[in-house]
What we know:
Radius of gyration: 19 Å
Oligomer: single chain
CATH architecture of the largest domain: 3-Layer(aba) Sandwich
Amino acid sequence: MRRTPIVLALLGALAVTGCSSSGGQTAESAPPATSADPAGSGARFAVITHGAPGDSFWDVVKNGAEAAGKQYGVTVTYQGDGDPAKQSQLIDQAVSEKVDGVVVSMANPDALKEAIGKAVAAKIPVVTINSGAGSSKAFGAVTHVGQSEDVAGRGAGEQLKAAGVTKLLCVIHEAGNVGLDQRCKGAEETLGGSVERLQVDVSNLADVTSKVTAKLQSDQQVNGVLALNPAIAVAARDAIKDSGSQAKLGTFDLSADVVDAIKADEILFAVDQQQYLQGYLPITFLNLYKANLNTVGGGLPVNTGPGFVTKDNAEQVAKLAEAGTR
């Protein structure tokens, strides 16, 4: 996976990490100002994502944002809510508090357009992360930090095709999340076989296992499953066992359980978008923007992925996942 010089330079600072907590809670990192704070000791940045409380993926994003806040001596407030209306309210609240910058994920860009527009109109710089890259520039964001979901999906399709998958079940766990559909479409482009979507609810993992099991039992031509979330991947793994299927399983994103399953040959691979960087880099960019009007990306997204975690490198990644940085 190619890394640009700016990302390589920033990676040297990743030794400092924050602690994990539930995504729906607010956490602040406001140590004494240091010379590492070019934006000034009073800088305050709000991170507002669509991550559900306690989600293992978003806890790592939060860790990255808090680590950057500690490093630069600035205040970082993190809040997560899967309801776009509530997410918009959190953005409005940050604008009313006159924060120095906003970081926001856009699973449903249209629902957040007005709120983000208010931030931009108030001359508060916005960095979008994770999803909604196609709308980021149009909404007035300084840059977008994440991965191309289309490219990542195509990479997953290639991996599954190489494993012999000819009919794929793509499990979508959030209705209305444009990035998830892009992942399935990308896989469909490169698989060379057929792709069927299955809608599930990420908040009910037992039901996810039941639905995937039922699908595998009713259609034995399905010989591959693509999960788009680590918790869904574990539920799908259990479904494959319960159904007696020989389907190959791949997933997006990492958790300790996913890494263990890769090591045990239960999951072929995980598409790694390095979500720690999706928390860490935006705080870095906003800090530099406030201090020196620096912008990054030149109008294009700053890609944090995709990379792939397979059995070949899972052992190394497992240690980093335990530390909350992968």
